[in-house]
Amino acid sequence: MTLCYIVAMRAEAQPFIEEYGLELKENFFAPLPCMLYEGEVNGSRLCVVLNGAQHNSDLVGCEAASVATVKAIEAIRPDLIINSGTCGAFQSQGAEIAKVYIGNGAMFHDRRVPGDDAWATQSVGNYDVWQGSRQLAKALGMPMAKVTTGSSLDMQAIDLEIINRHGGQLKDMEGAAVAFVCSLYQVPVLFVKSVTDLCDHSADTFETFSRNLHAASQALRNANKRIIEHLTLHA
Ligand code: SAH
Q1: What is the mean pLDDT of residues 163-172?
Q2: For a pocket test of ligand 1, which of 5, 60, 159, 193 has the largest count of ligand atoms closer than 8 A to its C-beta?
Q3: Is the CB of 12 under 6 A from ligand 1?
Q4: Residue 66 in this model has a pLDDT that exceeds 70
Q5: pTM over 0.90
Q6: Measuring CA to CA, which residue among 81, 2, 75 is closest to residue 36?
């Protein structure tokens, strides 16, 4: 079995790259900035693809995630794509800093295309996740929630309205883009998201995000370790 992670920020991926001693495959995606780290766990191939960097910072957002996912699927042919990263979530729904969730769906909240139902359906996306996600969450005792993706770290009133209308819960900047590409290739996608900030509580999202990034990334590593063990031992 081949598992392939798609991760936006190095800080989010580094703890489990180190945990498994994954090796950088130099220039694997050249000339693109995406980076491949690879190793073996319990007889399965474990790949971690980082979006890479530009302008001296990690590439976050939908465009970079889409490019990385296309290239990863074409070059690695994974059995499962896993999008792991941080997110904002809602305290009113029981979210806490560094709590880790498994995704049960993915939508976009900032693509407003007026018109008929077909355009609205396409823009929100509402992509399915890997059908084993629920069983995995149950086996590991992890909560599930719906990933909601947009191109900004902040949240405008119209974003919240769409999030509420479609039941979005885990606000990130990549998830639905990864799910979109996976839907085109018919490759299953699993989401693992750790909370860095509370959308209905944090005064300054960026400051809160930065303060909690380390703890959320440690929690991600711990969750991913359990997930990788489970998937590779039950393959
Ligand atoms: N300048 C920052 C960029 C962080 S962008 C830095 O380099 O430190 C935020 C990243 O974390 C994105 O990859 C996104 O998926 C995730 N994220 C965490 N909290 C979020 C929130 N409240 N809204 C949107 N994305 C969030």
Answers
A1: 97
A2: 60
A3: no
A4: yes
A5: yes
A6: 75
